[in-house]
Amino acid sequence: MKTHRIHKRRAFPLQFVLVVPFVLQIFGAVGLVGYLSFKNGQRAVNDLVEQLMDRTSDVVDEHLKSYLTIPQTLNQINADAIRRGILEVRDRQAVGKYFWDQIRAYDVTYIGIGLSTGGGVAAARYDGKTITIDDWTIEPSKTNINYATDAQGNRTSVNASWDWDNFSEPWYTEPIAAGKPIWSKIQTSNLPTGPYIAASASRPIYDSQKRLLGMIAVDIHLLKLSNFLRDLNISQAGEVFIVERDGTLIANSSAENPFTTLNEKVQRLMAVNSPNPTIQAIAKHLQTSNGLRSITQATNFEFKVQDEKNFVNVVPWRDPYGLDWLVVISVPENTFMAQISANTYTTSALCLGALVVSSIIGIMTSRWISRPILCLNWASKSMASGNLNQTVEMGSIRELNTLSDSFNHMAGQVRGSIAALEKSNEELENRVEKRTAELKNTLEELQRTQSQVIQSEKMSSLGQLVAGVAHEINNPVNFIHGNLVYVQEYIESLLGFVELQQQHDSNPSPEIQAAAEEIDLEFAKDLPKMLASMKLGTIGFVKLCCRCATSLVWTKLNLKWLIFMKELTALS
Question: Sign of the C-alpha dihedral, residues 27, 31, 32, 34?
Fold first, then answer.
């Protein structure tokens, strides 16, 4: 016979089924919302960073254009004034005062003219505040004298003097060699007023006959660019710096200076050697990628500095006079992500709170729902164990109340059915006991009847045996009985013959006499009587056998009749 095995599946508690999916749904929904919110925040940050860097780049570009255009414009104005004879270069007093007026009006550090004769004059604001005048000549010595001035630009006293030679200075030789307006090499010096790092816009000057008179230059102090970049306040940890194509720092927004002083000499720094870790790391990254000279258009990338993600924007900046710089803007992600992270932490805390509250509500709800079900379960188990007096109280859930009412109705029906079944069982037991007694009596009667049947069978077998024996005996007895008549006749004849022989032979021979004595011939005369007795015995024996057989037959018939009557009584 084929059997089917029932596979028992793993079951979970009702509270687990009610609480865990509920909590998982809330956690998934809140987590998804938080994740999408965080991602949207990141996209917003990326957009904001891009806009900030674009705006900063535009601001720096506009400032560089306006700030670096002034020197070339002043050079153009002064060169035209000299070419037209408006400004006489040999009158150094007048030229110095003219330059003094210009430097007061424009945000430049130095305006000067170097003549082909070796002399020259300039107005300067080395400390960024006080305007002084430089005057030098090759006769009697190559000495530059710095004069203090009053409020009208008149020279008042000598501040300092130092050796000076036009023909050895790049700001003079480079534009003369180029024959056009250019930016000469950035020059550095350590003045009494402090470090001086200047970019010089230089231009050759000619008279009306196009004869070379020398050159004119306007300097801007690059530290002013650093001050401007610091004032941008791009972000709390953002950096803006400007480098040349060879990697030399021009200006930066960090608190560190883009130069160093060694043995009282001012030396410009390479960006990779900047004390600022962000500038240093970005410069190294730019040089190790494709090099600074390979950057020909605005480039954006993300870069980690000290395990902190930074958004970097590199923009080439050029002008018609030979400047080729790179403006690098770096904004750390944490600047904008701090608030988002705080919001994320707040959201996470709210999510955790919502999860805890939802878990508590879920547990309470599950208990509220599961309590009636557990009561039903306990009542069912009690009924299964035999305690039928079970009822379930109604609660506040309609469906469970319906289930409880059905259970109570079912319990009542079960109790009624059990009572009816017990009553039926009792009646059945009584009937069974009664029937068992009847069957017991019947069995006893059957046993007696069986004994009688066995006895009858025995009697029948005995009758058959006696009949057979009687038949077997009757035949020889009848044969003997039938032949006894003839034997009697023969014996009587023989005895008559013997008597006749004795009558005729009164003197028998000794042998005959001995034989007669030996056989007791006198006794032999009783043979007819003996034969008659035997004949009577055979007749009696035959009659006895017939009576026994008849008695056995009647006994067998009587037993069969008794068995038939008892069976008939049992059937009735």
Answer: positive
CA–CA separation, 118 and 136 (whole Å): 8
Residue 418: which residues within 8 A CB-CB, separation 6 or more?
388
Q: Which two tokens stand for residue 37?
A: 């919110």
Q: Which two tokens stand for residue 484?
A: 């006894």
Q: Indicate whether 162 pLDDT > 70.
A: yes
Cα dist from 441 to 139, 433, 434, 569, 571, whole Å: 168, 12, 11, 13, 13
pLDDT in tens, 84-117: 988 888 888 999 999 999 999 998 999 999 998 8
Phi and psi torsions of 4, nearest 5° = -105, 125
Q: What is the pLDDT of residue 14?
A: 63
On the question of pLDDT at 56 being above 80, the answer is yes
Cα dihedral 422, 423, 425, 430 in deg (nearest 10): 140
118 contacts 105 by C-beta, under 8 angstroms: no
Q: Across 319-450, where does the E strand assignment appear?
A: 324-332
Please provide the size of the chain in residues: 572
Cα separation of 75 and 326, whole Å?
Answer: 25
Residue bearing the bigger pLDDT, 390 or 32: 32
At residue 17, the pLDDT reads: 67
CA atoms within 13 A on the CB side of 254: 23
In DSSP terms, which residues pair with 187 in a beta bridge?
Answer: 198
Q: How many CB atoms are closer than 10 A to CB 483? A: 11
pLDDT tens digits for range 249-274: 999 988 888 889 888 888 899 999 99
Neighbouring-strand partners of residue 221: 198
Question: Residue 193: which region, alpha, beta or left (left: phi > 0; alpha: psi -120 to 50)?
Answer: alpha
311 versus 449: which is more confidently predicted? 311
- Chain centre distance of CA 69: 63
Give the 3-state secondary structure percentages of the chain, helix then strand then coil, rounded to 5.
60, 20, 20
Structure tokens at 102: 């210009």
pLDDT on residue 201: 93
Where is average pLDDT lowest: 84-93, 130-139, 398-407, 418-427?
A: 398-407
Q: Using CB atoms within 10 Å of the CB of residue 357, give its burial: 0 to 12 exposed, 13 to 18 middle, 19+ buried.
A: exposed
Taking Cα atoms as reference points, which of 299, 301, 249, 309 lies closest to residue 279?
249
Neighbours of 524 (CB within 10 A): 15
> Which pair of tokens denotes residue 508?
């028998």
pLDDT-based confidence at 73, cuts 50/70/90?
Answer: very high
Q: How far apart are CA 55 and CA 292, in angstroms?
A: 23
Please state, in angstroms and rounded to a whole number, the distance separating the CA atoms of residues 182 and 251.
Answer: 20
Give the separation between CA 212 and CA 215, rounded to whole angstroms: 8
* CB count in 10 Å sphere of residue 112: 27
**Rounded mean pLDDT, 19-45:** 71
Q: Is 156 left (phi over 0), alpha (psi -120 to 50) or beta?
A: alpha
What span, in angstroms and rounded, lies between the C-alpha atoms of 319 and 75? 15
